[in-house]
Amino acid sequence: MTRIYDEDLAGGLATRAIHAGQRPDEVSGAIMTPLYLTSTYVQESIGVNKGYEYARGKNPTRQALERNVATLEGGRHGFAFSSGMGCLDSIMKLFRAGDHIVCAENVYGGTFRLFDRILRHLGLSFSYVDTSDPQRVAEAMTPATRALLVETPTNPLMRLTDLRAMSDIAKRHQALLIVDNTFATPVFQRPLELGADIVWHSTTKYINGHSDMIGGLAVVLEDDLADRLQFILNAAGAVPGPFDAWLALRGTKTLPLRMKQHDINGRAVANFLLGRLGEERVIYPGLAHHPHHELAKQQMSAFGGMMTLELGSIDNARRFLERVRVFSLAESLGGVESLTNHPYSMTHGSVPADVKQAMGLTDGMVRLSCGIEDTEDLIADLEQALEGL
Ligand SMILES: *Cc1c(COP(=O)(O)O)cnc(C)c1O
């Protein structure tokens, strides 16, 4: 477990992103956190060591990243994992057979797959509900419910969930509120401040931001919960290698700066597409017609670079995806480079067709992750790609 240093809470978000969790190296004064490539640590005597015994439990490079992201989320303890899914799988080990979890219905496809294809068979039960409606969430809670798990905005339908309302419901039932904050990042949304118990990320996406590693990270405020997560982290061992932690730590230094440009590009691209395709076909929480625009303005400090377009048919989607040049057709999101994908067959390929239909995910949809290239180049690329339809 990595508890943050109190002094890391000083300063604004950009300052903390660059400095929190990092101290000049004691040996040399190196300003950048060294890459600790070691599996074990020499001990002076039985039980006498510098707080490090074996690197599954703790690694100083990893700890710097954990402190850094915990600070950005306004939490006190961070836990880095080998992937977003490894992180969620470890979080779910807080529960035991017979426990019931209420989960948002349009979560990341891999989250649904982990629950439906693996954890369900281990005795956890799940109810999937539309968490944009707090009433439905309240109705889904049972005496066995131990957690409420949401993602906002959702992938790829960009629906929002009211985190304060979720926190009230979870508290009433003594359930943990677990929030996937991968899309918004702590720059635009801080779930712990709205009552969440655990915030987690696929650091593969915006936190690292350069599409060159896979990782996950969870942040909590409460000490008891942190002890339990540290136990799981060490016992189950889904930890990242130090180099991936180091890359993500380099990434967080520019997170606030990158998010600003993702948001500038997101807004400009959404407005351009609105003019081209009309309200029905552009799903972006920053547009006034979006059903959760008011909540987005309240709960998030900006809207970011993610959006989904309805192109009407899989043939149109295919033509569009084959024509883009600055945007690349690829899984993933949140990197400096612009990406686009086909959620129906890619991120949500493992979700059954009837479930996709129920959540409103069609095969004519394409998702955009607007990078931080020049705004005009992104718009020109989309313009030429749409001409082909
Ligand atoms: C990618 C992603 C995940 C899974 O993370 P990995 O690092 O790919 O394991 C979870 N949630 C969201 C919202 C994601 O985009």
TrEMBL record:
**EC number(s) per UniProt?**
4.4.1.8
Q: Which CDD domains match?
A: CGS_like
Record carries keyword Lyase: yes
**Which BP terms does GO give this entry?**
cysteine biosynthetic process via cystathionine; methionine biosynthetic process; transsulfuration
- Carries keyword Lyase? yes
Q: Which family does it belong to?
A: Belongs to the trans-sulfuration enzymes family.
Q: Which UniProt keywords apply?
A: Lyase, Pyridoxal phosphate
| The gene coding this protein | metC
Traced from the root, the source organism's taxonomic lineage reads: Bacteria, Pseudomonadati, Gemmatimonadota, Gemmatimonadia, Gemmatimonadales
Q: Where is it found, in Gene Ontology cellular component terms? A: cytoplasm
Pfam families, alphabetized: Cys_Met_Meta_PP
- Known cofactor(s): pyridoxal 5'-phosphate
Residue numbers bearing the N6-(pyridoxal phosphate)lysine modification: 205
**Protein name (Swiss-Prot/TrEMBL):** Cystathionine beta-lyase
Q: Name one GO molecular function term.
A: cystathionine gamma-synthase activity
